[in-house]
Amino acid sequence: MIELEYNLMLAEMAGKNRETLDIGASLTLPELEARLGFPPDSVGMLLINGVWAPLDSVVRDGDFVQLYPHMEGG
């Protein structure tokens, strides 16, 4: 099980801010996006257990995962 926190437009897409998800042993970010029904590459920033993680990281059972969409600004 992982605990997920959705932020900004990802929370709107999910229809909630948090949930718990049984993922088995591990998932890559593209696998997680597909499992959640998000379009590919919709996550722009990933934190695992409160620490910034590269987008090619693997999410493992027991992780607290925070997902953010791509940000724009200047």
Structural class: alpha+beta
Radius of gyration: 11 Å
- Identify the CATH class: Alpha Beta
Number of helices: 2
Overall residue-averaged pLDDT value: 94
CATH superfamily: Beta-grasp domain
Cα distance spanning the termini: 37 Å
CATH architecture: Roll
Strand content: 35-45%
Please give the order of strands in the largest beta sheet.
2-1-7-4-5
In total, the number of domains comes to 1
Q: What does this protein look like?
A:
By secondary structure, the protein is an alpha+beta fold. It has one domain (2-69): Roll (Ubiquitin-like (UB roll)). It has helices spanning 9-14, 29-36, and strands at 2-6, 18-21, 26-28, 43-48, 51-53, 58-60, 64-69. The strands form two sheets. It has a five-stranded mixed beta sheet. Strands 3-6 form a two-stranded antiparallel ribbon. A hairpin with a 2-residue loop joins strand 4 (43-48) and strand 5. The longest helix is centred in the middle third of the chain and has 8 residues, at 29-36. The radius of gyration is 11 Å and the shape is globular. The termini are far apart.
